[in-house]
Amino acid sequence: MNTRIPVAIPDLSGNEKNYVQDALDSTWISSSGKYLDQFESDFAQVCGSKHCLAVSNGTVALHLALLTLNVMPGDEVIVPSLTYVATANAVKYVGGVPVFVDVMSSDWCLSPEKIEDAITPRTKGIIAVHLYGHPADMDSINHIAGVNGLWVVEDAAEAPFASYKGRPTGSLATIATFSFYGNKVITSGEGGAITLNEDRLALRAKTLRGQGVDPNRRYFFPITGYNFRLTNVAAAILCAQLERHVEIIEARKRIYQLYEEKLSDVSGVHFQPVSEDVVLSPWLFCITIDEDAGKTRDEVAQRLEDQDIETRPFFIPLHLLPPFREDAHNRSADLSNTLRLSASGMNLPTYTNLSENKIERITNTIKGFLDNA
Ligand SMILES: *Cc1c(COP(=O)(O)O)cnc(C)c1O
User: Fold this and answer.
1) Which atom of ligand 1 is nearest to 129's Cα?
2) 59 lines ligand 1 (CB under 6 A)
3) Per-residue pLDDT, 373
4) What is d(CA 44, CA 52) in angstroms, rounded to the nearest whole number?
């Protein structure tokens, strides 16, 4: 009997247990403690950023970023339509209007050209998503933002430890956000962070994260804040993950290489394009299935599911979802790349100890089904 192959399994084989035990023994299980301090300091450094604030998840990280940037009701924020729903939900939490823009076929991230078409007098900022681990074209996006007086946030949930023109993700915009959900590259089960350089914004973000308390006057709350904090126990897991991040990335890159080797000769199957000047974060290996395959993406996914192999279809375009579709329809932007990728793309299982045998089981199932091995 074949065992089921899930899309993701967290790798907790380092010091995770030791550090959690140590956090418990210390009784520092709430929202301060040495693991939080250490994680924030180490992660800021890896991201080439001055500040890091740990928060309870990646959605909260986005919400905190938008609160910090003072997004107001009615403000328009440009987001890609091909992303996880949290990117647009966060805009809604602050009363903003997500304006959906297409991705490029060359990197699957926000199209700078199409951003320009979407800017109105109400536009305040851009959330660039590093989709499936590939950094967006940040120089072009930052340039457009600069010319139009907009801020830029990087949603780097899927791309920690990636780089763009030699600079790490987390250092490429005014604020960057990360997720440490169970299926992400490093995880604490639930968890997230923002990274940023400006001291003034960091102080504001810290205040908002902790109920708005005045840093110099206990129990005095000059503004309405939130409880967006992470626990020291979760940070203990993150410290253990972070100290092994090079090893984790290497192991995942090896999975990517094996998939590419074994699927390179299958007509109709294509890989994620990688721009020359970026280093991808190997999150979930992607393929797209075109007409030459003779089968649809959903048929391939079903065949894999029949063999107890889990896959994930690419995100459903956000502009088609009930909370957003009416507003998006009225703007009638060209979102053709998003539609095509969403219909043809899928993620294959990617985790550090996925064996070559299992990868072969997956790739042989695909080849056998597409009949052209
Ligand atoms: C996972 C993810 C998030 C949200 O993270 P959570 O920790 O699940 O709240 C946000 N944006 C993108 C692009 C993601 O992939």
Assistant:
1) 13
2) yes
3) 45
4) 5
Q: Are 239 and 191 in contact (CB under 8 A)?
A: no
Rounded-to-integer distance, Cα 269 and Cα 186, Å: 28
Query: What is the mean pLDDT for each group of 10 consecutive residues in the chain (373 residues)?
Result: 91 98 98 97 98 98 98 97 98 97 98 97 98 98 98 98 98 98 98 98 97 90 96 98 98 98 95 98 98 94 98 98 88 94 98 97 96 58
- The pick from 158, 183, 188, 237 for probing ligand 1's pocket by mutation, whose C-beta has the most ligand atoms within 8 angstroms, reads 158
Domain range list for the chain? 16-242, 245-371
User: CATH classification of 245-371 is 3.90.1150.10, yes or no?
Assistant: yes
**Residue 71, class by beta-carbon neighbours within 10 Å (0-12 exposed, 13-18 middle, 19+ buried)?**
buried
Measured CA to CA, the distance from residue 214 to residue 218 in angstroms comes to 7
Beta carbons within 10 angstroms of residue 274's beta carbon: 14
- From the CB of 281, is ligand 1 less than 6 Å away? no
| 86 CA closest ligand 1 atom index | 10
At the top level of CATH, the class of 16-242 is: alpha beta
